[in-house]
Amino acid sequence: MIMKILSLDLGTTTGWAVADGTLPIVSGTINFKSGRFEGGGMRFLRFRQWLAEIHQIQGGFDALYFEEVRRHIGTDAAHVYGGLMAHLTAWCEEQNIAYQGVPVGTIKKHATGKGNAKKDVMIDAARKRGHSPKDDNEADAIALMYWAKEQNGVLL
């Protein structure tokens, strides 16, 4: 089955990966840090603009998966994640794109065999599959992509 998928590790620095059944996984990170002279909502507007751009560049998506975080260390991180997730799910509804949150432990266990794998272990797991992630955000998006492709029967 050929299916175009976008996977995201949501956060101020968002990791992303795109793939289908015909091309290798393409991945990266994008920063949504608020600028010094910006209002608090600008990061979310930039996020929605980026979603629209990658959607257009890639010719659309059949499905979108994001890392579902249930616990945050800080209040600010929780607020950023919640805002990004709200905009993401609303955007997917507008575009009629299926979306699903996948628990962090599920992604880590699929990638490493351990549901509580540390960041460096996730980066190593991506490298073992032939990728060169810039950081743990990109590594997590890559790991999520492999999970999503397997769940959807997309050939790797």
Number of separate domains: 1
Radius of gyration: 15 Å
- Please describe the biggest sheet, giving its number of strands, its sense, and whether it closes into a barrel: 5 strands, mixed
> Helix-strand pattern, N to C?
EEEHEHEHHH
Compute the number of helices: 5
Distance between the termini: 11 Å
CATH topology category name: Nucleotidyltransferase, domain 5
Please tell me the overall pLDDT.
93
Helices and strands, with pairings:
Elements lengths: L4 E5 L3 E7 L6 E6 L10 H17 L4 E6 L6 H21 L2 E6 H9 L6 H10 L7 H16 L5
Parallel strand pairs: 1-4, 4-5
Antiparallel strand pairs: 1-2, 2-3
Helix pairs in contact: 1-2, 3-5, 4-5
Structure description:
There is one protein chain. By secondary structure, the protein is an alpha/beta fold. The protein has a single domain (about 5-150), classed as 2-Layer Sandwich (Nucleotidyltransferase, domain 5), CATH 3.30.420. Helix content is about 45%, strand content about 20%. It has 5 helices and 5 strands; from the N terminus they run βββαβαβααα. It has helices at about 40-60, 75-95, 105-110, 120-130, 135-150; strands at about 5-10, 15-20, 25-30, 65-70, 100-105. The chain has a 5-stranded mixed sheet, with helices on both faces. Helix 2 links the parallel strand 4 (about 65-70) and strand 5. The model has no long low-confidence stretch (mean pLDDT about 95). One of its GO terms (molecular function) is nucleic acid binding. This is Phage related protein. It comes from Thalassospira lohafexi.
